[in-house]
Amino acid sequence: MTISHHPPDELLADFATGRLDEADHLVVAVHVAQCPACRRFAGAMEHLAGAALEETAPVAMKADAFAAIMAKLDEPQPAPRADVPPPSALPDEDLPEILRRCRFGKQRRVAPGLKLQPIILPSAKQSRAFLLWSAPGARMLQHSHSGTELTCVLKGSFSHEAGRYGPGDFDFGDGDVDHQPVVGPEEPCLCLVAMTGDLELHGLLGRLISPFVRL
Ligand SMILES: [Zn+2]
Fold first, then answer.
1. How far is the CA of 128 from the centre of ligand 1 (A)?
2. Does residue 150 have a pLDDT over 90?
3. Residues around the ion ligand 1 (C-beta < 5 A)
4. Confidence class for position 171, pLDDT limits 50, 70, 90
5. Rounded to whole angstroms, what are the CA distances from 211 to 72, 109, 114, 146, 201?
6. Residue 77 pLDDT exceeds 70
7. In angstroms, what is the span from residue 1 Cα to ligand 1's centroid?
8. Helices (H) and strands (E) in the chain, counts
9. Which domain of life is it from (predicted)?
10. Does domain 1-215 have CATH number 2.60.120.10?
11. Which residues, other chains included, contact 169 with Cβ-Cβ below 8 Å and sequence gap of 6+?
């Protein structure tokens, strides 16, 4: 596997120091697991953050802090939420190890040649993660983002103005990026995506179908 596109340094630093929302963290983790260069970078950032912590002056704890923590641990755990949908079966794909441990929602078709399966992440606050299948040769509508879009290719490929993205490649999009990806002709493209905000579709067709495309 040749990886040519990586997360921006700032995103990798936030990943290494545990500051990303759960869905964003998952997409970066899937890339980092396959990319030795980003693993080295993230490892170095973790090391730096650990060293900075060691140099921080210790703060005195309250006398009853230990007892308070133990009391908290003894508290009954909340019952599982009834409104969380039951997980559906793992998609029939050769997924990376990290994803095989996830819970998946129901797969659905969002547009011709485009289907989506949400990943259930109870701690995600702003971002949501899903698997996205696109048909070979599909041309996505010209779009930009009101939030951010993190993508890691799992299978197949797509291309847009910034180049070709194959397995392991990472693509970062935000409000400044306005692109029209085209899926490679060789096979369906499977991507792991984390999104905040909404897609903003452009052009007449985009405006016509955007009420029906819900990602
Ligand atoms: Zn990388």
1. 22
2. yes
3. 6, 35, 38
4. very high
5. 46, 15, 15, 15, 10
6. no
7. 12
8. 6, 12
9. Bacteria
10. yes
11. 3, 4, 5, 31, 152, 153
Give 121-143 pLDDT, tens digit per residue. Answer: 988 778 899 999 999 998 876 67
Q: State in Å: Cα 12 to ligand 1 middle.
A: 9
Cα(162) to centroid of ligand 1, in Å? 16
Ligand 1 centre and the CA of 8: distance in Å?
Answer: 9
**Side chain identity, residue 159:** S
Tracing tokens 């048909």 back to the chain, one arrives at 135
CB distance 209 to 141 below 8 Å? yes
Q: Is the pLDDT of residue 155 over 90?
A: yes
More confident position, 53 or 95? 95
